[in-house]
Design brief:
single chain; 5-stranded parallel sheet; 5 strands; Ribose 5-phosphate Isomerase B, Chain: A; alpha/beta; globular
């Protein structure tokens, strides 16, 4: 991945700002779909544009941040071409890529440190989909 979309609600704003700087420093192009205001807002307003961009191939993958990660996950996974994986540590971040081929990593900003968020992003970006039995399972998600 070289072009990453990122979205957030008000709860994820501080982490998003720092993650953008981190990603730019690592040579990624970043497209910001999130709010830049600390005012309370509705996470679907930011999740859907990110999901649309991933589905259209405008970005290679995405990162989404909200308080628990659940709201973003629910909104993102309503899109047929999205596999948004919620992670709270590096093991889960690796597994959502290896086992679920998650094209969006969801981070619960209220429940992980910024240091953990960066480590999860790094692991998710450098992990690869394992295929095999995991592909069979993904096929069953998209073709119920």
């Amino acid at each position: 991945m070289k072009k990453i979309g990122i979205c957030n609600d008000h709860t994820g704003l501080a982490y998003k700002t720092r993650l953008i700087a981190y990603l730019l420093g690592k040579g990624f192009e970043v497209v910001n779909f999130g709010t830049d205001s600390p005012e309370s807002c509705d996470y679907p307003d930011y999740a859907h544009p990110l999901a649309n961009a991933v589905e259209a191939g405008e970005v290679d993958g995405g990162i989404a941040l909200c308080g628990t990660g659940n709201g973003m996950s629910l909104a993102l996974n309503h899109h047929r071409g999205i596999r948004a994986g919620l992670a709270w540590n590096t093991t889960v971040a690796r597994l959502v890529k290896e086992h679920n081929n998650a094209n969006i990593l969801v981070i619960p900003a209220r429940f992980v440190s910024y240091r953990m968020a960066v480590m999860m992003v790094r692991v998710w970006l450098t992990s690869s989909f394992a295929g095999g039995r995991h592909q069979r399972r993904i096929d069953k998600i998209v073709q119920p």
